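New here. Your pick:
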Amino acid sequence: YIFERSGTGWKQAQKLVASDRSSYDEFGYSVAISGNNAIVGARRITETADENTREFTGNAYIYSRNANGGWSQVLKINPDDRKAEDRLGTSVAMYGSYAIIGSPGNDVINPDDGAVYVYWQSEDGKWIQAQKLSSSDHGTYARMGISVALSEDFIIAGAAIEHRDLVGKNELSNAGAAYIFMKPVNKPATNPLIRN
């Protein structure tokens, strides 16, 4: 639900729903807003493609506020490499022309090491995938991306199940960790998939 400030209080301006909503999607599990853009995560979306069912791939949706004050869906985040159990959209964040989406079930190198997708908005208003971030140590079942935040220069991603110490020698069950990344400086002209 979108609320707008009205005098000293707030009033509901609009109820957002996905254009392709279905049961058990958990649309609204995560939300963020910045200026005239908003992002909503739906981490349990299940898709069927080529007669194959992929459970809990997840999605995120970007909405923009139009000149009349209404909000419209402008993009469904759907990376090419998304797989079952990725749970994309578990966490989201927005700052200025950037949006990030956590995918804690993503298998980058090890099972559920997790990933964060970075999108930016071009001058013509289109949202483009800029990077896919993953941790340097790729901890098995670390689930990086279970929480995310974004500032002007940095991205931080939580990995609540990470269990290795700083030198990677000792096992500390579910001790957790957080990873900090510099935001991309060069905005891509196309839509590459870059892993760090």
Residues 190-196 have pLDDT under 50 and may be disordered. The two ends are 35 Å apart (CA to CA). The first strand starts at residue 2 and ends at 6.
